[in-house]
Amino acid sequence: CLLQRCHCAGATYLFQQDKFYDVSYDTGDKSVQCSRKPDAFKFWLMWKAVGTKELGRRVDRALAMAKYLAQEIKKREGFRLVIEPEFANICFWYIPPSLRNVPDCPELWKKLHAVAPVVKERMMKSGSMMIGYQKHGDKANFFRMVVISPQVNRQDLDFVLDEIHSLGKDL
User: Fold this and answer.
1) Cα–Cα distance between 21 and 34 in angstroms, integer?
2) Average per-residue pLDDT in the chain?
3) What is the percentage of the chain residues whose pLDDT exceeds 90?
4) Interhelix angle for 154-168 vs 39-75, to 10°?
5) Which DSSP helix (H) or strand (E) runs through 126?
6) 0.85 exceeded by pTM
7) 3-class DSSP state of 101
8) What's 114's DSSP letter?
């Protein structure tokens, strides 16, 4: 397809091939900026609507919520940060009970690689939430959550971790 050849970024972290549905219907990698509209205009419009101080408060709040999520991940059994977050992107693994006592070896990571796609499928089919996953280099699939909504609160983030555990505890 001409559009795909012209616009394809090949961003494997956005367009995973191991989804439970036919990925040929994913149109994001066939359009400019994954079908996003001009980002600068959206930012300018929001800036004009809420002002500089409110934008600053929203960034501070997003960072506080991301920090909270990272702290909760560190506290909860079965969750592990991929890397200490530097902004609002939180990357983490969910390790189901069946894998928690498996020694750190290639077999563990091979099994763990299959966990995020199954949990994501269950999220989508239940309609509870939708969080992306990806692999990076030789790292197994992990969840990648961006905490930026000004409406997100601690209860929402607790729900995310509780729901992931609920959807994946039998794996």
Assistant:
1) 19
2) 86
3) 57
4) 70
5) helix 115-126
6) no
7) coil
8) T
Residue 139 CA from chain centroid, whole number: 15
Count of CB atoms situated within 10 Å of the CB of 40? 8
**68 Cβ partners below 8 Å, 6+ apart?**
154, 157
Cα–Cα nearest to 140, from 117, 167, 163: 117
User: Dihedral (C-alpha) 72, 74, 76, 80: value to the nearest 10 degrees?
Assistant: 120
pLDDT value at residue 10: 63
The pLDDT of residue 16 is above 80: no
Separation of alpha carbons 104 and 111, rounded Å: 11
pLDDT recorded at residue 34:
61
The number of helices, as runs of H, and strands, as runs of E, in the chain is 5, 4
Which residue from 165, 160, 128 is spatially nearest to 147, judged by alpha carbons? 160
CB atoms within 10 A of CB 161: 20
Distance CA 61, CA 88 (A): 10
> What's the pLDDT tens digit per position in 68-92?
999 999 999 999 999 999 899 999 9
Phi, psi at 80, each rounded to 5°: -150, 130
